[in-house]
Amino acid sequence: MEKLIFEKSVKGRKAYSLPSLNYEEFSSDKLLPSNLRRASELNLPELSEVEVVRHFVKLSKLNYCIEDNVYPLGSCTMKYNPKVNEKVASFDGFTALHPHLDEDACQGALQLMYELGESLKKITGFSGVTLQPASGSQGELTGLLLFRAYHQDRGDTKRTKILIPDSAHGTNPASSVIAGFQVVTIKSDPDGRVNVDELRKYCDDTTAGFMLTNPNTVGLFEKHILEISEIIHNCGGLMYLDGANLNALLGIVYPADMGFDCMHINLHKTFSTPHGGGGPGSGPVCVNDKLAPYLPVPQITFDGKKYSFNYNLPKTIGKVHSFFGNFLVFVRAYSYILMNGTEGLKQISKASIINANYLLSKLKEVYFQPFKEYCMHEFLITGDNQKKFGVTTKDIAKRILDFGFYAPTIYFPLIVHEAMLVEPTETESKERLDEYASVMLQIAKEAESNPEILLTAPHNTPVRRVDDARAARLINVNYFKGEAKE
Asked: Is the CB of residue 386 less than 8 Å from the CB of residue 407?
């Protein structure tokens, strides 16, 4: 196993060679009072330059990324990101911009943001947009703050509830609570969709809105969406679309036409910015005319000659992000949309749906399929068939790692026992999907003939199976004087 950098340390070894400097003038009490100085030196590793470089190169090789192999995380859309987007985002004219520049000095950046916003409105069918939110969850919070402002502006202060399906992403209830709402959970039907009768029971004059992902989190399209929208609107509520699964809708249907009033878009998922490891992200929010007056400021306007920041929105909820958002994510998304065009975006969704159904067709006879119909861009299977051999979904996921593939999302959504949520995305070839299916089928056979190999997996990774319970209780994040401390 690779040693920690502290274990490689040799006293007195340095990664640099510089002439001595006179530090006396820099160490006077006038510059740094003695009570603010360290009593002892920092416990930092001491290595030569080549050993430092080798250490971090080895660490980089341990990272799994989309350039290594399939990354089929359901509801995360970990698609391949074309390198031309990275090239465009590295241009000095974008990377060297200062956020305090005058409008006249950043017309190109303003044009890009304005045109990106216009593209997102066309893609979704909405009339208003803000690019400010820096993540999908912040986009959710922004949308819900718009809901609150809308109801309060009308004097409708009784509306304190947000209805959310039991299959929803965890950020939905969290965002609702932070925005000041109470959360009411709506149960799903046996077919994995919203229980419309259950929804009716909870829809009243205290309902502020309904948050929904469509296609939903089990990979199915909510075929009663127009009826759902009518129910919510008839009781005075608003419809919110969680845009995590927008990759299945591009060019096929407009979210606004389904009756939604607001949605956030994960630029880092649907429009090609790497988002592994927690960032960077971007969660623009698109709205209809009802909610447009409350959008964050500034809005970017264009008078035919000049792009400008507009702060003149009397009913705005204010800013939700310092400056304007994660600008270089905008650049990548803008490049991606321009390269694909209207027809190309439609083909993206079609290919993602075809890929998901193709992979599902390979696996559904071996792994249990709880909802037996065609899926959208992702599908749900479970490890229930393997349970009788003493094997769990977690064991299956660990074994997948031994074959150089990444595991799908497991144990989510929570409403399905032993869930595996698989999203191959449109960027995987038939050959690569066949390889993944072959591995999954082999693992199913191993579960029956040699379950021990799954129970002790992974075997080929740098770190073997960890004790999850112990790791959660005793988090080890520091290294002190040659010993790891818990």
From this structure: no
Whether 263 has a pLDDT exceeding 70, the answer reads yes
Residues 122, 198 within the same domain? yes
Same domain, 309 and 358: no
Kind and range of the H or E run holding 153: helix 136-153
The residues, any chain, with a CB within 8 Å of residue 198's CB and separated by 6 or more, are 186, 187
Q: What is the chain's Cα-based Rg?
A: 26
CA distance 228 to 242: 15
Q: 354 lies in which domain range? A: 346-471
User: What CATH number corresponds to the domain at position 414?
Assistant: 3.90.1150.10
Whether the Cβ atoms of residue 160 and residue 220 lie closer than 8 Å to each other = no
Residues 458-482 have a mean pLDDT of 80
Cβ(359)–Cβ(265) below 8 Å: no
**How does DSSP classify residue 96?**
T
Residue pair 66/82 in contact (Cβ under 8 Å)? The answer is no
CATH number where 301 lies: 3.40.640.10
DSSP helix/strand/coil, 426? coil
Write down the pLDDT at residue 475: 79
Q: Are residues 311 and 409 in the same domain?
A: no
| HSE-up of residue 429 (Cα within 13 Å, Cβ side) | 4
Select from 319, 339, 359 the last residue of a domain.
339
Q: Quick: pLDDT tens for 81-106.
A: 899 999 999 999 999 999 899 999 99
Please tell me whether residues 170 and 238 are part of one structural domain.
yes
**Residue 306: inside a domain, yes or no?**
yes
What pTM does this model have?
0.90
Give residue 288's identity as a one-letter amino acid code: N
